[in-house]
Design brief:
By secondary structure, this protein is mostly helical. The chain has a single domain, classed as Hypothetical protein af1432 (Orthogonal Bundle). It is 71% helix and 0% strand. It is built from 16 helices and no strands. Helix 4 crosses helix 6 and helix 7 runs antiparallel to helix 16. It is globular.
């Protein structure tokens, strides 16, 4: 029985290695050929991204692009009337005013949120829907943390921080959609995680460049692969994103938050302590709830 079990384990390990190698080859080929696009990403979302990439885009073009998808348009109006952008309680009812109120960065964020929600519902990805949902919820959590930290502890644009947090896991999201075509890889979390570690950064950068996301956001996400080290000068977007990841990871894994914050140079540069963090979260409760609602959490 022992020998049989050992032989079976060997065959399983070999199969996992084959699947992992196949997935890695797929990723390498798509990256080399410039074909890094999320499968199932709605065309309207791609079109909105193209329109927003134009520095000289007119409000009318943005309204037309967004208005082509009623669900997305409705979400933008909902956001414009939330506590985040409408603390005075003056509602807007038409899309153009809603876009003007939330700004183009937030339109981009909501477009990506809408697209990922559609992607998660794709029939071809139903077998990995729980994994995709878990990854998305994590991205939403990080993004809301980045938003409130940027608003209260830095001069960094809070909308840019929100978008960076939302997109920081896009490389892993892409790899998971591709892994759905190689179901054997899920037999071994270790084999899958190895592929993800090796390819997440380069795949993520390619996707973000295809979407013409600002270089500052791309650089901040890329910096997550580097050690969290002491730096000089005011904290920027990279430190805010790092802090959001540190806080989210500590809470998800049940770690001591005070210890996690104290061990992070990024948090230190922001002046973020556990006491200040608790104060920020308390003050931002309504904002966080509104953000998670519109982002699909």
């Amino acid at each position: 029985m022992v020998n049989t079990d050992a032989a079976q384990a060997t065959r399983t390990g070999e199969a996992q290695s084959v699947f992992a190698l196949s997935l890695a080859r797929t990723l390498a080929q798509e990256l080399a050929e410039g074909r890094v696009e999320l499968p199932g990403f709605p065309e309207v979302a791609t079109q909105v991204q193209r329109v927003l990439a134009d520095e000289n885009v007119t409000p009318l073009r943005v309204v037309r692009a967004v208005g082509a998808e009623p669900v997305l348009a409705g979400r933008i109006v909902q956001c414009a009337n939330s506590v985040i952008f409408n603390p005075g309680g003056r509602p807007v009812l038409e899309l153009r005013s809603a876009i003007a109120r939330v700004g183009l960065d937030f339109v981009r964020t909501l477009t990506i949120s809408f697209a990922v929600k559609q992607l998660k519902a794709a029939h071809s990805l139903r077998d990995i829907a729980p994994q995709l949902n878990e990854l998305w919820l994590r991205s939403v959590a990080v993004s809301t943390l980045c938003f409130v930290i940027a608003r209260r502890l830095s001069r960094v644009n809070a909308d840019a921080a929100l978008l960076a947090g939302l997109l920081h896991g896009v490389g892993a999201l892409y790899i998971r959609t591709r892994a759905a075509e190689h179901p054997g890889i899920h037999w071994s979390p270790e084999a899958y995680e190895k592929v993800e570690r090796e390819w997440e950064g380069s795949i993520g950068r390619a996707l973000l460049e295809n979407w013409r996301v600002s270089e500052s956001i791309v650089a901040a996400i890329g910096a997550l692969a580097l050690p969290d080290q002491d730096g000089h000068g005011p904290a920027g977007l990279a430190e805010i994103l790092r802090a959001g990841v540190v806080l989210d990871r500590a809470q998800r894994k049940g770690r001591n938050l005070e210890v996690a914050i104290a061990a992070s140079p990024a948090c230190a540069r922001l002046g973020l302590t556990s006491v200040i963090y608790q104060s920020i979260i308390l003050e931002s409760e309504a904002e966080v709830a509104a953000l998670r609602s519109v982002l699909g959490s």
